[in-house]
């Protein structure tokens, strides 16, 4: 039985454009009788066969969320569970494909939308952050909300990056890549404020200033980083500059839904300034992942497809680097500790 959700289906389009997404919204939307998508959801639920439903009912994680529910209500929840898992997998997969599949396209999604159709795109399909009103990490223009494309499955992962760029006063000199799917009317766009520590930058900059050879390392994922294989970093002296590169490689089983987070900065020791800063998604297939995981970011070639997420077109201070890098790698506690966060070693 084919239980996939086609990217052009109404259910897929509805939840791919939803800033909160199916994980938290599917059950609520399915019960909204006045919402036209609820009847379409019911039709999709009816397609799931009994053996598939019975397997879900025996799933320990599913039972944990359902408690003592039985009978027809348990059956419906099992069907919703199946649909939710399909959407959670298919939406980020389709997002990575959409980012890659731009051959011959002048304005890939969402840039054909009327509220951003007049914006000038740079060669990496990025637009000026200053073209938007920003509220709680949401990029608002005219009557529509957009967001910066997330490198990982969580659509709110760029909230902290945007907040750090604003905090550093870099809105007018930053360009960003918009998410191809999340396009939502401003009046209905949920603007959620999140709380998290802002990280400091107690790096030994004198040590970096005086190095004439590479300094590099690798962090294995902590217990809260189950979707990554490891994180590499390297400082590379080169012609009076020092290049900082850091990459979080996804686990092999998540390579179709999760890109790697890749960060690059250029530091001038004599001026004590960062003169280049950008973040990107590296998208690998499984063969490319196999090749990449056997190497280190300091030696890795231009394998995979790199999609630029943001770039700062101005010099910034050393202190700003830590805040921006830590928030680009939000939930990566090794990067956070490296830039000064007081986080337990076993995270």
Verbal overview:
This protein has eleven helices and 13 strands. It is an alpha+beta fold and 347 residues long. The protein has two domains: 91 residues, no CATH class; 241 residues, no CATH class. The strands form two sheets. Strands 1, 5, 7, 8, 9, 10, 11, 12 and 13 form a nine-stranded antiparallel β-sheet that branches. It has a four-stranded antiparallel β-sheet with strand order 2-3-4-6, with no helix packed on it. Helix 2 packs across helix 6, helix 4 crosses helix 6 and helix 7 packs antiparallel against helix 10. It starts with 9 loop residues before the first helix and ends in a 9-residue tail after the last helix. The mean pLDDT is 90.
Q: How would you briefly describe this protein structure?
A:
The protein has 347 residues and is an alpha+beta fold. The protein has 2 domains: 10-100, no CATH class; 107-347, no CATH class. Helix content is 32%, strand content 21%.
Radius of gyration: 22 Å
The low-pLDDT segments are none
Fraction of residues in H or I helices: 25-40%
The portion of residues forming beta strands comes to 15-25%
Shape: globular
Largest sheet: 9 strands, antiparallel
Find the count of extended strands (DSSP E, 2+ residues): 13
Please work out how many helical segments DSSP would assign: 11
| First and last CA, distance | 40 Å
**What integer is the average pLDDT?**
90
Number of domains: 2
Order of helices and strands: HHHHHHEEEEHEEHEEEEEHEEHH
SS-based class: alpha+beta
């Amino acid at each position: 039985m084919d239980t996939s959700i086609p990217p052009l289906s109404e259910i897929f389009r509805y939840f791919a454009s939803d800033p909160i997404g199916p994980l938290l919204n599917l059950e609520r939307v399915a019960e909204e009788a006045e919402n036209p998508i609820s009847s379409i959801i019911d039709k999709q639920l009816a397609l799931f066969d009994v053996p598939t439903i019975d397997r879900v009912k025996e799933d320990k994680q599913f039972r944990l969320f359902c408690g003592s529910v039985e009978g027809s209500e348990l059956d419906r929840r099992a069907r919703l569970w199946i649909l939710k898992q399909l959407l959670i997998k298919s939406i980020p997969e389709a997002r990575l494909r959409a980012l890659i599949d731009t051959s011959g396209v002048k304005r890939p999604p969402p840039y054909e939308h009327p509220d951003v159709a007049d914006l000038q795109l740079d060669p990496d399909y990025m637009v000026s952050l200053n073209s938007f009103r920003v509220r709680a990490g949401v990029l608002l223009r005219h009557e529509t909300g957009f967001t910066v494309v997330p490198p990982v499955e969580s659509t709110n992962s760029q909230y902290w990056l945007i907040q750090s760029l604003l905090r550093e006063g870099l809105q007018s000199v930053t360009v960003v890549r918009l998410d191809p799917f999340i396009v939502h009317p401003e009046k209905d766009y949920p603007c959620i404020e999140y709380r998290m520590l802002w990280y400091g930058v107690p790096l030994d900059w004198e040590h970096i200033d005086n190095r004439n050879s590479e300094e590099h390392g690798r962090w294995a994922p902590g217990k809260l980083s189950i979707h990554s294989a490891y994180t590499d970093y390297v400082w590379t002296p080169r012609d009076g500059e020092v290049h900082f590169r850091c990459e979080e490689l996804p686990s092999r089983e998540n390579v179709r839904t999760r890109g790697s987070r890749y960060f690059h900065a250029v530091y001038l020791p004599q001026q004590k300034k960062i003169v280049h800063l950008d973040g990107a998604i590296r998208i690998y297939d499984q063969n490319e992942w196999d090749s990449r995981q056997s190497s280190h970011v300091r030696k890795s070639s231009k394998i995979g497809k790199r999609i630029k997420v943001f770039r700062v077109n101005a010099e910034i201070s050393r202190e700003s680097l830590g805040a921006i890098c830590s928030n680009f790698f939000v939930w990566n506690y090794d990067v956070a500790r490296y830039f000064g966060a007081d986080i337990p070693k076993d995270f």
